[in-house]
Fold:
Amino acid sequence: MDKLKLVTPNLVNKNIEKIKQIFPECITEHIGGGQTEFAVDFDKLRQELSDNIVEGGEERYQFTWPGKKQAIITANAPINKTLRPCREESVDFDNTENLYIEGDNLDVLKLLREDYLDKVKMIYIDPPYNTGNDFVYEDKFAQTTNDYIENSGQVDKDGTRLVANTESNGRFHTDWLNMLYPRLRLAKDLLRDDGAIFISIDDNEIDSLKNICNEIFGKQNLVAEIPWQSRASIQNDTDFSVNHEYICIYAKQRRQENRRLKETNYIEWHKKDSFVCKPLPLDKSKFENPDNDPRGPWKADPFDAPNVRPNLTYVVKNPLTGEEYLPPSGRCWRISSDKFSSALADGRIIFGKNGTGRPQMKSYYEEKKEFGSVDNSWFSAERVGTTTNGTKELLQLFDGKLYFDKPKPTTLLNKLIDLANVQSGDVVLDFFSGSATTAHSVMQLNAEDRGKRKFIMVQLPEETAATSDAYKDGYENICQIGEERIRRAGKQILEELQANQANSDTLATKLDVGFRVLKLDSSNMKDVYYKPSDVTNDLFAQTEDNIKEDRTDEDLLFQVMLELAVPLSAKIRSEEICGRKTMVVDDNYLIACFDKDITDEVVTDIAKRKPQYFVMRDSSAMDDSVITNFETIFQTYSKDTVRKIL
Structure:
């Protein structure tokens, strides 16, 4: 049996392994922490990349700030924490596939990384806007004013000031960047290749956000920067009434080919290897048939397309006027010269309404309706609602009480989830959950189309102010409000479903409006589990059991699920096997037995079930003979089962 590590992966080691696969000759060994470790020989790596390497102070394009290197280290550093289930605060714990996780999202993302690597279809976050009163995340990169002035280049080596005044908000931007940067690096790993992240932001940090997203996701994967009309009323206390925010959309891997050129091979263009926004239904009213074309209603589209391609650049002559045309600068024609001749003969090319203009191509409704239409990059209040609508939703759910300032409306999240083409079974993650609008929207959309989309909400349990209405009403932190919002929204959705549907009882039983509450905590294991060198003779009596006294079997199970990349939403059932309490996960995929006095009989019964994984405590065996016979039993009945111990 192998011992579980119960520590998140060291991403530096994973990056070294990637380099090893490409440049094995650049990997060497060194002594670190008293043991031999792999390392990168950067001299050799520089030789391999000699035509492209940028050295020292050589000028190059880059975006940096004080603390960036530490932020990268923080993103990669392993942690030995866990998520502990909380049944009493959950809804339908045993059946739901939704998660609500309480804790600092940096640590939570690290814990989720292996479990949900490349599995999340959509991420939406509404991070702090850095306006001076909403930045509550722990600042692990705090600097004194003098340190900041020195690190940001405002003093020379002798300490002489180089500028007249400090940048009044320099450290302010730095703190915000150091908070968000490592979280976005981790978030990218969770996205599927056809997934995307949607980030709400305002003018304070829109430039900084795009800079770090361009670095993490790649500028080529910016899908859109959408202005959203977040308020409709005019505020008269400033020079301009700021009525907008932004929603930046970055794909994990954006489809780069021109959509119009790919319509002839639509299925290939939409295969699931990169992100494509869901098209809108085609508006038939925009198509006419003035010439009684037998193919039906059509509209005239430009004949030119983006990009410059030699095979798509040729002279087109107007048959009526004889005038010759080339594509506009920086563009090409949509089809080759041979195909143009065929399309012209087939009546698919026109030259303006009177036949005297530039070439255009007919687009037929019947041929185009399956492709739909692209959306536009302006989200007006009429289309997706405003924060006022979000406020009204919360007031209605909480009986006239408002616990959040300017909450996002479900109409906005509904639009984004639809735009991301989130299908039944897909996962939506929000790691700045706040008022839990994202969870509300997921449940609402599932009720509308009978889908089974799943949500994962992550929220720091920020305490509510003692003078606030929320605190007076019994909500000690933001998580308690968010969880209650999901409970009430789920109840409301079920009631509306039962009131409006003939077969509402059947639909209601299939709709998942529950969620498992998990709470970030220190590892279930005592420190000596990770540092056996700390064990001394006088500590031996205290460390016979390496598990903390206040931890339950279910606590242990969830840490094991994280370690083995078993989904945290997997079905769990308790079962007695030969008189010993056992937990069976996902129909025998994982079986865990942390009970005492495990016998050969128990091990044999479990082995005969042929689980993918079996986990037990190293102190659970009744006697030494059980340990001796353990491997023989599994070799006999289920040699492929992966056996692990705590």
